[in-house]
Design a protein that fits this description.
heterotrimer, A mainly alpha, B mainly alpha, C mainly alpha, A: two-stranded antiparallel sheet, B: mainly alpha, Helix Hairpins, transmembrane helix (chain B)
Chain lengths: 261, 114, 108
Amino acid sequence: MSPRGRLGLFLAGAAVVAALFTVACLGLPPFGGAHHPYGDRAVRAAVRHHTSNAIASVNFDQRALDTLGEETILFSAVLGAVVLLRQTADERRHTPAPAAVRPPIRRFGLLMLPVALAVGLYVVAHGQLSPGGGFQGGVVVATALHLLYIAADYRALERVRPLRPYEIGEAVGEAAYVITGLAAVLAGSAFLANVLPYGTFATLSSGGTVPLLNAAVGMEVACGVVVLLAQFLDQAVQIEGADGGGSDDDGPRGPGRRERA
Amino acid sequence: MTVLPYLVAGWIFLVGVYGLVTSRNLIHAVGCLAVAQSSTYVLLLAVGYRRGGTAPVFSDVPPDRRVVDPVVQALALTDIVVGATVTALLLALVVQLRKRHGTVDPDALSDLKG
Amino acid sequence: MTGTLTDVLVAVALLLVAAAATAAVLNRDPVRQALVLSFLGLSLALLFTFLQAPDVALSQLAVGSAVTPLMILLTVRKVRRRPGDGGPPQGGAGDGRRGAGRDGRPPR
């Protein structure tokens, strides 16, 4: 189909969608209204299970099975990306040279790295108490590690980030979630039911299984994002394609090459 | 103000789809998909908002405090992280396409297949 | 009084998000799009904070303004790096760092 025809088709479809969507919006309860039946019930259930962050309660207690599904999507997406981005037989790997980093950037990066790591772990650990949890904290931990790429260079990052443990960590995170669910079955309840004692409201050990599932997700997300970014970094920095086009030494194919071409 | 958030969500979705339809670069198309995806977060949170409510966290407020809807927030929260990994999967597919067919232009790809 | 203030803040953040989303789509160069996407993530996080959703805002901040643009930039770099490109000439995506670090070796 020609670009013009495609655009015309889109505009026609978009006009219909826009009209219907606007009509639907006018029929929705007004923004900011007081009628939230599901929200009220979810809040009551969260308080009953001594989980002070109602969102963590929804994710890891009331909808724990759905979160297992989400986690599996994450797991398989990372797996798929690893398979697609692996080094194939016709590709070669070259080691990037050490990069010079300006001292202020280096100092600031090395200063922020432990701070960002600690914040990430704090956010994971306090998921059931304050805003945060495994999903957000895991991403913070994973990105914090990559400050090292900014502060130093790729080789430094590779030294603190041997990929194998992170791959195992991701699988362990996924497995821990399922095992916690199965343990509830063994305890004579339903899969992923909250069987542990609920503890004291608003303390670190409150919420029964919520902190455990939260930690499992935090581990999986942190390791998954690290593995994912590592694959992209490998492809962008290290792995070279086979059709070298005449430059078959270890030389970098940077912007300079393209300028000549 | 009663419908503005819903309409903004609709606008973001349509503008994202417009980018997908007219894109000449698959990386750009993946970015447009991320834009279209973010409309769902706006819509969900707009539906769950309650005037005068605080965040549904009871660490330092009494449990009978008026709060916004936690269910939609939980939905949006997990989807943001999972959506990012799916974006990564799509980008990995783009890298593979570039390796196999030497282009990231979707039109050139359909010419290729015939 | 605080109610109207919140409404105004939410409305401003909504318009900001709509503008950022439009800009992200209209920027056809993926590198610039990644930067605009990062700004979109930031404004979404702001909007979610005003909508009393700190959890979602935190998630959006980490993912939308850091991880997604980073992956897009890395993909651009990988895709444009191959020789015999013939692609768009505005190269150098994410290469600045590496180019600066490669000392003393003239590009052939």
